[in-house]
Design goal:
370 residues, alpha/beta, Aspartate Aminotransferase, domain 2, Aspartate Aminotransferase, domain 1, 2 domains, 10 helices, binds pyridoxal-5'-phosphate
Length: 370
């Protein structure tokens, strides 16, 4: 016999990704899990060509289109493979042999993007803020970019999940198409998507569970993509088929739909932005006030609103911070394995109250160990 153990409460989840999801999105999934809309089956047990799933797919696309104000010139795509697959597919589609593309290097993900592009052709580095220790503690200014007008695209990463930096204004790429990995700050605030040729984001940071990647693409840019690569790898194939060329990750898209309903219900992207700025202000405010104990390595103008990184006076105390926070029901605070320290991921599903709880813990921890 199965026994269902109801936990009295969920943890406060500061995971970098897969990240915590808004509770109403999960509760709706629980409610609809066994019998979706009177169909007698879960949404994940039905054909992606049947009405029930088609409606979910359309609703997710419509909500995202409305939230971001996606213009007719652009199309929303639901893709797979994680953001990392698109590190390879972007140059495969848009950097044909003999052509080049510009990469703006702002962290570990940029390095992976560039490595994949190098296997396919000759990308250029347009700027890099890597320091002598291999860290990236800021993003470049517009003046630091050395853009090649002949590049097929300029690739940027809007938020650097590992190093905790973020572009508050993304570079102006002029006439060159702008491709952006927005995995870790997609939907954090209103964004003028018409400025971009191709935006992509793994869902598991700010949109849904892992397994689905969303893209917002300029149709004219997609039409310029290579035709001499396998059909399944061409973005144009997915655009022409409404992201139903083959079986999409139906359950992940369904959950993204639930998250998008929640975002709209909370007041949309202006509300997300207001809340995210309040959260970041509370956290960075505490770090600055306690700067004798906590060290925040990122330069102020480049501080990420989504991933806040810092250190205590020692590695042992970093570990104790994470362990003590866990005892207080706060999870996911360990810094990335490559950087160490502490990382707070404060995506849309994290509330101001969650952050305030953490801030009082931080004050207490600094007092007892300072
Ligand atoms: C998490 C992350 C990725 C990697 O995503 P996968 O889905 O694991 O491939 C890529 N880029 C950024 C900015 C990320 O935060």
């Amino acid at each position: 016999m199965h026994r269902y153990i109801l936990r009295p409460m969920r943890v406060i989840n500061f995971s970098a990704g897969p990240a915590g999801l808004p509770l109403p999105a999960l509760e709706l999934a629980r409610e609809e899990l066994l019998d979706f809309g009177g169909t007698g089956a879960s949404i994940m047990e039905q054909s992606h060509r049947d009405k029930a799933y088609e409606a979910v797919h359309a609703e997710a696309t419509e909500r995202l289109t409305r939230l971001l104000g996606v213009p007719d010139s652009h199309v929303v795509l639901w893709l797979t493979g994680g953001a990392s697959t698109h590190f390879a597919l972007v140059p495969m589609n848009f950097m044909p042999p003999g052509a080049s593309a510009d990469y703006v290097m702002t962290g570990a993900w940029s390095e992976k993007q560039l490595d994949e592009a190098k296997l396919l052709g000759t990308p250029r580095v347009a700027a890099s803020t890597r320091d002598a220790q291999g860290r990236y503690t800021r993003v470049p200014t517009q003046a630091e970019l050395q853009l090649d007008p002949r590049a097929r695209y300029v690739h940027t990463t809007s938020n650097n999940t590992i190093f905790g930096t973020q572009f508050h204004t993304l570079p102006d790429t002029g006439a060159v198409p702008h491709v952006c990995d927005m995995s870790s700050d997609f939907l954090w605030r209103p964004t003028d998507v018409s400025r971009f040729a191709f935006i992509y984001a793994g869902a598991q940071k700010n949109l849904g569970p892992s397994g689905v990647v969303v893209a917002v693409a300029d149709k004219a840019f997609l039409a310029q993509g290579r035709k001499d690569i396998p059909k399944i790898f061409r973005y144009q194939t997915h655009a022409e088929n409404g992201s139903l060329y083959n079986t999409p990750p139906t359950f992940a898209i369904y959950l993204a739909r639930n998250v998008l309903r929640w975002v709209e219900g909370e007041g949309g992207l202006p509300a997300m932005e207001r809340r995210n700025l309040q959260k970041a202000q509370a956290l960075y405010g505490a770090l600055d006030a306690l700067s004798g104990f906590y060290a925040a390595p990122v330069e102020k103008d480049s501080r990420s609103v989504m991933n806040i990184v810092f250190r205590t006076p020692s590695e042992a105390l970093d570990a104790q911070f994470v362990a003590d926070a866990k005892k207080e029901n706060m999870l996911g605070l360990k810094g990335h394995r490559s950087t160490g320290g502490v990382r707070v991921s404060a995506y849309n599903a994290v509330s101001l109250h969650d952050i305030e709880t953490l801030v009082s813990f931080m004050k207490h921890f600094a007092q007892s160990h300072g």
